[in-house]
Every structure is written in C-alpha cells, then in structure tokens.
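User: Fold this; tokens only.

Assistant: Input:
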Amino acid sequence: MIQLSAKAKKWITLSTKVLGVFLFLLILAFFSLRGYFLNKAIQKVQTKLKSQYATQLTIKEAGFAGLAGVSLKGIELIPDGKDTLLVVNDFSLSIKFMYALLGDIRVKSISLNDGYFQLTKKNGVKNFDQFFKKKGDSTQVEENETKATSEAINYAEVLYKLITKVLNKVPSEVEIKNFSMKGLDEQLFVDFNIQHLAFDKGTVNSNMFVNSNQMTQHWQLSGLAYPSERKADLQFVRVDSGRVMMPYLPERFNLLAGFGSARLQVNNISFEDDELKIDGLASIKSFMVNHAKISKKDVVIDEVDFNYVYKIGANYLSLDSSSSINFNGFVFHPFVRFQNAPDTIFHLVVKSEKTEAQTFISALPEGLFSHIKGMEATGSFSYRLDFKYNENNPNDLVFESVLEKDQFHIAKYGDANLSKLNGEFVYVPMENGKPMRPVFVGESNPYYTPIDLISPLLKKTVLTTEDPSFYWHRGFVTEAFRQSIVKNIRTGKFKRGASTISMQLMKNVFLTREKTMARKLEEILLVYILENNNISSKDRMFEVYLNIIEWGPNVYGIGEASQFYFQKKPLDLTLSESMFLATIIPGPKHFMWRFGKDGSAKPYLEKTYRYLSTKMITRSLIVPEDTIGLTHQILITGAAKRYIMKSDTLVNDTLVEQELHLIENHEATGDDE
C-alpha cells in the first residue's frame, strides 16, 4: 500500500476544495444566468422564424421549474397574414441532468396542456407552405446533392442511427391534456382532440375525440412501449359503437374505410453485418372499405395478421420471405425487395402453404367475391408467384404464376353457376350499366349458330385477333401478362391488357361490365375454375362467345352480324368478310368510319388485311392460296349500310396506325413471327 506524505495529502485536500468551490461557483453562475440564456435562445428562434419563414413566435412567460425543468406559457406560432399554426397554453419539459453534464441531452418528461396545432387551406392559401420553400443558393444545393449521390451511402446504417437517436430521445414520462390536431381543406375539416394521453414507465394510454364533416368518434390507444429496449405493443380501438372510421376520406375521395381494432407489435430492431432488421406483428380486425372503383358493396375482411421481418441493407429494402400473412385463415408468405444499385430491381415472390380449397374460398372477403358466395370445394392447392423487373433490362422481366392442385374439385357452385354454359340460357347485354334486349342462347333463337356451321375462316380470324392460344391455355396466358406489364411500365400508362376469350366470356355471361377491382378479381377466379375443372369444352365456350358478342348497334352474335352486314349465313363468310368482322370486335359501334358513302371500304384497310393475312399464314392457319381474291373492298349489302357515314373522305395515315395498334394490342399473346 502506497503511503502518501503529509505534503501530498495537503495538496490533494487543497485541490479538492478548490475544485469544489469552482463547481459551486459554476453551478451558481448557471442558475443565476440560465434565465438570460433561455431568453436569448428564444429570441434567436423568434428571429429565425421571422426572417426566414415570415412567422411570428410569441411566448408570454418562460422560466425554469426545479433543477432541470423548463416551463413555457402562452405559446403562439402565427404566419404573417395566415391562420394560426400553433397554440399551447402550458408546456413544461425536464431533462436528465446527469446526461446533460456529459453533453447528451435526454428528455425526462414532457407535459402539454390546452392548445392546438392546425394546418389550413383557405381559398388556395396554406398556413404552412412557407416552411417548405427552398432557401439559399440553389446551385450550392444541387452541388451538395450531386456529391451525396456520388458517394456510397449505407442507408441501413444511417437509418439505424436515426432510429436509435430518436428512440433515445423519447421521454420517460409524457402527459398531454386537451390538445387538438386540426386540418382544414377549404370546406372540409377534421379535428383530433386528445383529451388525455399518458406515457409513464412503458405504459401508454390515451383517449381521443375525432370530429369531421360527417362523423364524430371516440378513439383509444393503449399498450406498452419501451423505446430503449426497441420494443412496443400498442392497440387501437373505438370506444363508442362501430368501427374506427378514417375521417376526411369520405368527403375528399368518396372513400369509406375503417376497422374494429388494430395492433402493432415491435419485437426487435437490430443492426448486424451492415443490415438493419425490424420484426414484429401487425394485425387488423373487421376491416371495411367502400369505393366505387373497388366494389359496389362494402368489402369486409374479418382478420389479417402480418408477421413481418424487414431487412434493410446498403442498397436494398426488403420484406423477408420468413414473413407471413394470415388472411382470414389463408396463410401465405410474401417476399418483396427493392434494390437501387448497381441496377434498379423490384422483386416480388408470393408463396402459399398447402391449403384446403374450402379454407381459401371461406377466406375471400365479403363484398369482393359475391358471385362465389356459397361455393363449396374439396381438395387442396399451393400457389407461387414470381415477379422480377429490372429497370435497366425491362425485356428480361420475370412473371411466373404456378398453381399446383391436389384433388381439387368444385362440389357446389355459388351464385355464378358456371355449368349453365352447357345448356340454353338467356344472355342480357349491358350498356352503360343498363340492360339491353335479351338474347336467347340456344336453337330456339333463329340466329343462333352452332360452331360447325360457322365459317372456319371467321373462327381462325377471330382467334388471331382476340386469343391465338385459346385452345391451348387454361384461361390465362402468362406470356401475355408479361408483355402487358412490360409495355405498361414503359409507357407509364395502362395501354395494354391480356384479356383472353375465356375472360371476355366470363365477364359477359356471369358478371357485369363495371370497371371495379371486385369484378376483375371475380373474373380471374371464375375463369380459373371454369378452365381447370372441365366444366365446359373449348368448342362450347367459343361457340357461346361467337353467338353473344356485340358486332354492331343492337347486333349480337355471328348469326345476326352475317345478316346485318352481308345478308348471308355465317358458314358462307369469305376471308375478307371474316377479317372485317374480326377487326371490329373491339369497337363494333364504330364500323361505319371504315366506309365511303357508296358502302365500299376505304383504301387504308388494305394494310390491316395484309397484316392479318401475313400473321395467319405464319401461324399456319391459312395457306397463301387462301388469300387469292382477298380484298379490303368488301361491300355492305345488309341493314348496316344505312349507318355508313355520308362521306367519302379518305382517312390519313394516323388512323391506319391506330387500327393496327388496336389489333396488335388486343391480341392475347405476342407469339407472332
């Protein structure tokens, strides 16, 4: 043991006393001058807000509470000539003193009483847009942005540091009373009034009243949150009767959306091997949505559980394949990855576990599949979807959809009895949502034509323009979907679909023409059931299709069309006449602009016919000898002649290209030449 001399002990004692006196004087000076420094800090903020954002900050009273607390009263933030942005009557904050001595400012508690924060837009004037206007030298900003993009940034590391910094700043205690968050968009308003919110040692509890133009609700948020441990488990419900309904959406977008309860659980946030990982659980019960573009009815999902695992790296963001979604009892695993270097790539994979067929049918949302309601099925299936798009190589797009069945069988049909295709029935065409005259599908209709009494040339031409692989596919053409996606992504618009004859038949016979998500989803599902359960033969489906499709104003089916245009039977149609009929299917009511006043076809149609004949020869549907006598100069001899425009003005090359574009894009595949 080291023995200190008397002199050394004397110096240590003296140094300790001096240091103690210095710290005392420093603390005394701090408490004497802290009011001055607080006012200086407030003045600095006020000056910056006024000079840079034309906004006035006023604080009626500012002071300290206790050793490490700040109290502000009468806070107002008012943009010049605009609505008040913020009002707080009483605000107090305390920091963790020991951390502050080390230069790490951490908030211990926050208390906020009485006030509001509002965003408004009146007569096009917003009370917040001044905070989003660019300041300073734009050239310097662009140089900084260029420098930032040229340097490699590890987004995972940056995000993890940001999350960690934010979570470390979360106070241990928070109490908010009677504080509103308001929004006003011209005549539309919403007010979230927090009656009381308390966060104390990990426990969260709050009550909020929500008011808008059309609704008043009482919401509650409760649960546990431990920011320092990166864990949380929060639940959100409505206290009064009914679902939690999203305000503002009904008035602004004519959209109703709500849920019975929602839960968010965060189990882990970690950073390892240059990868940020976030996992937990999100769930929602009794979700409802209603919009004219989705369905004519309320769409209701009973329960969805989402076990998520997000992984973020230096150049990618992904939802890991270990994630799972339980959708009304139907379980599947999604994988989503977006990569921005070296190539920009979006990758989506969806895999379902082996599922009982009836479990899947029962899981379908109410209001979205009304024609399938009541359907019963046996057996099981599994499904896999693989979609991958490289922005630098769009033609290499991957689209694979595989469904594997195990003794799958439809035991009972729902509201859409698909077997009616095999017998006689009444078809009612719809136009602009209104029913037209009924068309009887069967031999008692004098215009109904069995498939073997229809010209083979007409059948081959229609297949060429509408669905070349109809007799080989099972309702869908994967390659067509792939090409459709590539073209739509390139143009940035939905310019090309991939509709097959099976899909058109389903839409016409069993569904409506309404352009909603519900109708399209039902169409896809019913087509799969029809094509993969031997419900009807291909010949029968094609026969019904040719006998019900619209071929002109109030003209339905090939029997009526042959008489309407050429005064002959379908079996006697020539190749020229067949090409005419096939090419007007996409727009049958506009056939008249192809003709002059004498009823003869306009010359530009020659290019259309030449294109089609070449394609049919390439596909071995016809031989070159079949084109002998082919002419676009067909004559309309039937009742259609009176619809022909009274003009013999020739169309320009633009219309030629439009028609060829229409024919090419209306085909179900691109397997030409």
